[in-house]
Write a structure and sequence with these properties.
Helices cover 61% and strands 6% of the residues. It has 609 residues and is mainly α. The strands form 2 sheets. It has a 5-stranded antiparallel sheet with strand order 6-5-4-3-7, with no helix packed on it. The relative contact order is 0.07.
């Protein structure tokens, strides 16, 4: 099957078909280009999505620790790799398919144009031969008619008796001339006809079949190229399937790595404070004044049962209040000692309670004059919050358990740095020995400054490790002794043990607790008790800035030279004083940068370490 033999008369149709083939090729190239853009945009959006939800790891504290978070971030990493594979697909399609199609389309247009021009030239040459043949034919026909006219004129004159001999001779010469010209035109027409027939045969059996064959081969190559591009389009996707499968397997493994028990343990490790839960509240007997007014100090059996029911009700109410997450409990009065409460019997065998006056009077005085401050949840939270002030070197602003972990982490880091410095010292000593044995390799004295610096670093790290280990031992000792102090505390429960001060702060020594002045009016509503710790601290003086301070660190307060601030907390020996502006903004400023003036009637600063 050949276009040259089967489609010898379909030049225009082949012209349109080849043009349609090139248009289809370019259309498919446009499809591939849009697919590449989709892949690129998809990969870009995936990367933006991963970047949006990936953590900003500016410090080690912000690194994900929970297995669910780690699994999610592993999934994000796998998704990022998946986006990279989509980019690989786009690049492969752009290089192997789209680029090849565009180059081939350009070559195809050039080749088609050349073949069509050759066909048109052959057709134009055949048309020219036909015109020459047709002109010779028309000329031969015209000369034949003229010869026939000349012959008729000669015969008429020859038969005419009146015609002169000269006229007859002239007509005869004209006839011979026309006949000769007709013979020449006949020969020319025959030659042109033979030439045209030869060119026409060559045109339809040699030239056109050759041109159409080239067009057919061009179109078949275009079809083959499309087939290869289809295959390359699919291969670009198939090549990345193994890697994409690994990415999906990584996501599945990340999902399987989630451990809810481990996450729960991490929550405990992260937020465990090391403090003991608050102890039981003592029973409060508000009926003591009734018994004190009775002369015989007795009470009927029905009253005794009623008193027991009231006691149970009171205890139930006391136990019903939740702390730290509920309302703050009312201040408790000390329990009665065995010497202040005993049982007596009446002659009829009934028992009654007898109270001594002095213990009851002592309890009433304690209720009126003393109100133990039990910190609320917000005050506890404020006590160990790092944002309330600059972080201390010994982490004393943290609860015991968290402080112990931070100190242990710092000791581990210092030990690693110490090991690096020791390895560097050993390497320098070995290099020094080599230089001493082979002076041409280097000067041993040039290593002495580096050795001295390394030794200083080692001494500094050892001192830091020793200091942090001392703090760690102190924390572990106090954490272990806190439980004993909780069980051996006084029965009145008026003095808060451990690191919890009455104002909600935490100190290492119970003797350093800051006690507020005794409350002369001990009757406060539960609403006041619940929100009194959220009030701003009172000003205990004022200060004037001697030097300007930028206050870039978190918890610090920027100030200008000559600016006047209120003092709300004195310097506790760490070089920082807590101050407040008139607009209510609070923070820590260096004590050496300010001139402090304290009020004489100030109540003192409240320490939040």
């Amino acid at each position: 099957m050949s276009w040259g033999t089967e489609l010898w008369d379909q030049f225009d149709s082949l012209d349109k078909h080849t043009q349609w083939g090139i248009d289809f090729l370019e259309r498919y190239a446009k499809f591939v280009k849009e697919r590449i853009e989709i892949e690129q945009n998809y990969a870009k959006q995936l990367r933006n999505l991963v970047k949006k939800y990936c953590p900003k790891r500016s410090s080690k504290d912000e690194e994900p620790r929970f297995t669910s978070c780690v699994a999610f971030f592993n999934i994000l990493n796998e998704l990022n790799d998946y986006a990279g594979q989509r980019e690989v697909v786009a690049e492969e399609m752009a290089h192997r398919v789209y680029g090849e199609l565009m180059r081939y389309a350009h070559d195809l247009k050039t080749e088609r144009k050349m073949h069509l021009q050759e066909g048109r030239k052959a057709q134009q040459y055949l048309d020219m031969c036909w015109k020459q043949m047709d002109n010779s034919k028309k000329k031969f026909e015209r000369e034949c008619r003229e010869a026939e006219k000349a012959q008729q004129s000669y015969e008429r004159l020859d038969n005419d008796t009146n015609a002169t001999k000269a006229d007859v001779e002239k007509a005869k010469q004209q006839l011979n001339l026309r006949t000769h010209m007709a013979d020449e035109n006949k020969n020319e027409y025959a030659a042109q006809l033979q030439n045209f027939n030869g060119e026409q045969h060559k045109h339809f059996y040699v030239v056109i079949p050759q041109i159409y064959k080239q067009l057919q081969e061009m179109d078949e190559r275009r079809t083959i190229k499309l087939s290869e591009c289809y295959r390359g389009f699919a291969d670009s996707e198939r090549k990345v399937i193994p890697i994409i499968s690994k990415c999906l397997e990584g996501m599945i493994l990340a999902a399987k790595s989630v451990d809810e028990r481990r996450d729960s343990q991490m929550v405990v490790d992260s937020f465990k404070s090391g403090f003991e839960p608050p102890g039981d509240f003592p029973f409060e007997d508000y009926s003591q004044h009734i018994y004190r007014t009775i002369s015989d100090g007795t009470i009927s059996a029905s009253k005794q049962e009623s008193g027991k029911m009231d006691a149970k009700t009171t205890v139930g109410k006391a136990k019903g209040k939740l702390w730290l997450f509920g309302k703050k409990p009312k201040p408790q009065s000390p329990p009665l000692t065995p010497t202040s409460l005993f049982t007596s019997s009446t002659p009829n065998g009934s028992q009654f309670l007898t109270f001594s006056i002095e213990p009851v009077h002592y309890c009433m005085n304690e209720i009126k004059t003393g109100k133990p401050r039990i910190p609320s949840f917000r005050s506890l939270k404020r006590g160990w919050s790092v944002k309330m002030g600059p972080a201390l070197e010994d982490f004393s602003h943290l609860p015991p358990e968290q402080r112990r972990k931070k100190l242990q982490q710092r000791i581990d880091e210092l030990n690693r740095e110490l090991q690096k410095e020791s390895d560097q010292k050993d390497a320098l000593n070995k290099m020094k020995d080599v230089y001493e044995k082979n002076p041409q390799m280097g000067d041993p004295g040039s290593l002495q400054p580096k050795l001295a610096e390394t030794m200083n670093n080692i001494d500094r790290l050892r001192m830091e490790i020793h200091k942090n280990e001392a703090w760690l031992s102190e924390v572990e000792g106090k954490t272990g002794g806190r439980g004993d102090r909780r069980h051996s505390s006084d029965i009145n429960h008026l003095v808060t043990q451990g690191r919890e001060s009455p104002e909600g702060s935490y100190t290492d020594d119970a003797n350093q607790e800051v006690r507020g002045p005794p409350q002369q009016h001990g009757h406060h509503s539960e609403f006041d008790d619940e929100f009194e710790d959220d009030d701003p601290l009172p000003a205990i003086g004022h200060c004037k800035a001697i030097y300007p301070f930028d206050g870039h660190n978190e918890g610090t307060l920027a100030m200008k030279e000559g600016e006047v601030l209120y003092i709300i907390e004195e310097d506790k020996g760490d070089g920082w004083t807590r101050a407040r502006r008139q607009n209510g903004e609070e923070g820590y400023v260096p004590t050496s940068y300010i001139d402090v003036t304290l009020e004489k009637n100030s109540k003192g600063a409240v320490t939040y370490i």
